[in-house]
C-alpha cells in the first residue's frame, strides 16, 4: 500500500486464504471489506463521509478451478464498470 497525499492506494493482485468449509464465500468477502473499510476510515478520517469504499462485487474460486487469465479478465471488467 502506498499513500499519495491523503489518499491510500492499494493494489491487490490476488489473495490466497484458508477458511473453514462452513463459512460461505460471501461472508468472507463481506467481513474482509468491512474490516478494511473500518481500518481505512479510522486512519484516514476524510473517508468517513464516503457512502462506501468497496463495491458489493467479489470473485471467489478455488485455486485449481480457474486460470490466472480468468481472474485478470474479471479484474479488467471491474475497472471499466461505471
Question: Any key phrases for this structure?
Answer:
two-stranded antiparallel sheet; Transposase_17_sf; Transposase_17; 2 helices; Alpha-Beta Plaits; mainly alpha; Transposase IS200 like protein; flat; 38% helix; 82 residues; transposase activity; disordered N terminus; DNA binding
Detail the topology: elements first, then pairings.
Blueprint: E1 2-4, E2 7-9, H1 25-43, H2 68-79
Antiparallel strand pairs: 1-2
> What is the β-strand count?
2
How many structural domains?
A: 1
The CATH H-level homologous superfamily: Transposase IS200-like
Strand order of the largest sheet: 1-2
Largest sheet: 2 strands, antiparallel
Average predicted confidence as pLDDT: 76
| CATH class annotation | Alpha Beta
N-C termini distance: 24 Å
Are there runs of 5+ residues with pLDDT below 50, and where? 1-9
Which class of secondary structure composition applies to the elements? mainly alpha
Shape: flat
Helix count equals 2
What proportion strand? 5-15%
Which H/E pattern describes the elements? EEHH
CATH fold-type name: Alpha-Beta Plaits
Round the Cα radius of gyration to an integer and report it: 15 Å
Which CATH architecture would you pick? 2-Layer Sandwich
Kindly state the percentage of residues in helix: 25-40%
Pfam family, one: Y1_Tnp
Domain Transposase IS200-like: 16-78
Organism: Calidithermus roseus
GO molecular function: DNA binding; transposase activity
Amino acid at each position: 500500500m502506498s499513500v499519495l497525499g491523503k489518499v491510500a492506494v492499494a493494489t491487490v493482485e490476488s489473495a490466497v486464504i484458508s477458511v473453514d468449509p462452513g463459512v460461505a464465500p460471501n461472508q468472507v468477502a463481506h467481513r474482509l471489506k468491512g474490516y478494511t473499510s473500518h481500518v481505512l476510515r479510522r486512519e484516514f478520517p476524510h473517508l468517513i463521509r464516503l457512502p462506501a469504499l468497496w463495491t458489493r462485487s467479489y470473485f471467489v474460486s478455488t485455486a485449481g478451478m480457474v486460470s490466472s487469465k480468468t481472474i485478470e479478465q474479471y479484474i479488467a471488467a471491474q475497472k471499466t464498470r461505471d
